[in-house]
Amino acid sequence: MRLRQIAFAARELAPAENALLSVLGLSTAFRDPGVGEFGLHNAVIPVGGDFLEIVAPTQENTAAGRYMDRRHGDTGYMAIFQTTDAQAIRDNADRLGIRRVWNTDHDDVTASHFHPVDMGGVITSVDSFPAAPDPDEEYCFWKWAGPDWKAHVDTSLTRRMTGVEFAHPDPARQASTWSSLLGVPARAVDDDGFDMAMSNGGQVRFRKTVGDEQPGMRELDFVMTNKTQSLQRAASLNLDCDADGFSLMQVRFNLTDV
To answer: What are 138-169's pLDDT values in tens digits?
Structure first.
């Protein structure tokens, strides 16, 4: 099970996309016309062999728009995982009573989105592709990034994405749900925290909400080729930043030197 893509929801695509590309030194590879089904347009951005995505509404009353209303602005929205057998994960979901809100089945893909309420505040997708029998191959096939995404990989500032952290009032319950769905053990790390290790070395963390914090995506982790330059760019955009990262779209970006 590999964490392959993180999606953000933004009111306006261009400003959020430009900020993300500038600070992390990345390049947009693809704009997927398929997200029009959800009343959205998007940008898919490689980070090494993984991806960031930004979606923005093109019409009223979209699921992403309602999610931003609840979160009071641009925000982390979705976590997408890659496995060898997405149908097995669907079977787990049905057994556990986790609702599927979208499914697709074609010769080249099997994928499902799972309800954010059931998953603790974030849409979760699990996808598999016959063209990617080994999801842990760094640059393996990824349908949602278009046909030539590898030509857009730029690791001059950011080398790879290594983890995500979710906040929840009951992280033990959230970790148990995710572990049961994904078939990945969750390890207790303290009284209020649990970790899941992904097959390619990535990490998914569950931590307790603080104060009036809403359940959802809290942090992302990146290994940097040039951390100093990235932080300088974040400061030039007046983002909230310190010596180890910055915040954008209500998510903390943790940066570690390669």
So the answer is: 999 999 999 999 999 999 999 999 999 999 99
| CA 155 remoteness from chain centre | 19
Q: Measured between alpha carbons, how far is 181 from 247 in angstroms, rounded to an integer?
A: 30
- List Cβ neighbours of 193 (8 Å cut-off, separation of 6 or more): 171, 205, 206, 207, 208
| Residue 148 buriedness (CB in 10 A; 0-12 / 13-18 / 19+) | exposed
Q: Are 215 and 183 in contact (CB under 8 A)?
A: no
Rounded Cα–Cα distance for residues 233 and 220 (Å): 18
Q: Are 61 and 67 in contact (CB under 8 A)?
A: no
pTM: 0.96
What are the structural domains of the chain? 2-257 (3.10.180.10)
Neighbouring residues of 45: CB distance < 8 A, sequence distance ≥ 6: 17, 20, 21, 26, 27, 28, 29, 51, 52, 53, 54, 152
Strands 193-197 and 203-208, bridge-based pairing: antiparallel
Which of 67, 115, 122 is CA-nearest to residue 93?
115
pLDDT digits (tens, 9 = 90+) for 74-93: 999 999 999 999 999 999 99
Q: Are 2 and 135 within 8 A, CB to CB? A: yes
* DSSP class of 85: -
CA distance linking residue 194 with residue 206, whole number of Å? 5
* CA separation for the pair 253, 243 (Å, rounded): 11
Six token digits for residue 207: 């931590």
